[in-house]
Design a protein that fits this description.
The protein is built from twelve helices and 17 strands. It binds zinc ion.
Length: about 375
């Protein structure tokens, strides 16, 4: 897919269009070491470290670790995972090793690393006014269930808790269902697409033999195979869908929801993944689908059945919307010229996953952190 490129400094442009445009990378070869592997573009972690100004770059056996003040990336070749600020992401292509250098695909840099590390560089973002909450299932469709209740009830309860917090924070909230009613996936999408300056959050719970933890899904970018285990047959679909116009917002929102839930609920991190679930495919506003735990797991299933836990999940979702909203709309005071960029890259930006590693409110951060007004923004 090709998107129009607005005039902006080459250094910034390169990270964003890395996957889409080879010429862009070639023009800036001094910054990015591009390596062709398995027919696609990869870049070295060394150039990733330089571009994002990670002062510390270590490489032990197959594990690379990039560290900077309050930020970090860790990955291991042979896997399809990358940890950004401690949060697990599934990459669309495996991390490779060649000539004693670890490599990450250009697609994963542009579709995961860049929007997560620098959410305020994402194009076409607006202040969030409306949050569309989508409790999964309903009516005759119970979703999964355990001895304490069903997914449809638990998801609705989490959505209602999130709604209360979001209203308090000044957002408008719309619900695809606010009672025990059946709503088709098509109708959920149609409903969500009425709203502008909005985000869509679908809430579900999982079930499987032996599964545990929380996972979050953003729509898979066009051309890459879904990495959702549940999507066996759908993985043949790699087409562009309406929701792909929001690839960068989608992953930033998913990262915000995932990181905030993990910071509030002690659980296993099953990662931020790419999928083509119906509601993610066709929704035109930034969208995430949260699987908030496994009802089939004795400990988690019992915990989800407590109102306190569902309240915590609702609070986390509301907090995530605020984190996302702040991060994508943060405008750096630094003039983004090439020279400024080269000497003043992150951490003058906020990372979307920051709350996981540091829960201090943004406004009380040190001088190096942007001061963002959370309360009066809406
Ligand atoms: Zn479900």
């Amino acid at each position: 897919m090709h998107r129009p490129i607005s005039p902006m400094p080459l250094l910034f442009r390169c990270a964003i269009c890395l996957a889409a445009s080879l010429c862009c990378v070639a023009a800036n070869a001094a910054d990015w070491q591009v390596v062709k592997q398995q027919g696609r573009d990869y870049v070295t972690f060394d150039s990733l470290a330089k571009f994002y100004q990670f002062a510390e770059y270590t490489h032990v056996n197959r594990t690379v670790s990039l560290r900077a003040d309050r930020r970090g990336i860790r990955a291991q070749s042979g896997t399809s995972e990358i940890y950004i600020n401690g949060v697990r992401f599934f990459t669309d292509y495996p991390i490779l090793s060649s000539n004693n250098e670890e490599l990450i695909s250009a697609v994963d840099v542009s579709k995961i690393v860049e929007p997560v590390l620098r959410p305020n560089k994402i194009k076409n973002t607006t202040k969030v006014e409306t949050v569309v909450l989508d409790p999964g299932h309903g009516g005759t469709d119970n979703g999964t269930s355990n001895q304490w209740g069903s997914e449809k009830q638990f998801a609705l309860d989490v959505a209602l808790a999130a709604r209360e917090q979001l209203l308090r924070a000044g957002y408008k909230v719309e619900m695809t269902r606010s009672g025990d009613t059946g709503v088709s996936l098509e109708d959920r999408v149609k409903f969500a697409n009425q709203f502008e300056n909005a985000v869509f959050i679908s809430i579900h719970f999982n079930s499987s033999n032996g599964g545990a933890g929380v996972e979050s899904y953003a729509l898979a970018p066009a051309g890459v195979v879904s990495n959702a285990a549940a999507e066996g047959l759908a993985s043949a679909d790699v087409q562009w869908h309406e929701g792909n116009a929001r690839d960068e917002q989608n992953i930033a929102l998913a990262a915000a929801v995932h990181a905030t839930v993990l910071s509030r609920v002690s659980t296993f991190d099953r990662g931020v993944r790419h999928a083509r679930f119906h509601v993610l495919r066709d929704v035109k506003i930034p969208a995430v689908l949260l699987e908030g735990g496994f009802l089939s797991n004795l400990f988690e299933g019992q915990r989800v059945a407590t109102p306190q836990h569902r309240q915590q999940l609702g609070i986390a979702i509301a907090q995530a919307v605020q984190n996302y909203d702040r991060a994508v709309n943060f405008k750096s005071s630094a003039t983004p010229t090439f020279a400024a960029a080269a000497s003043n890259l992150p951490p003058h930006e906020r990372s979307i996953t920051e709350p996981l590693t540091d829960e201090r409110p943004a406004a009380s951060g040190s001088g190096r952190q942007p001061s963002v007004d959370v309360t009066g923004a809406h």
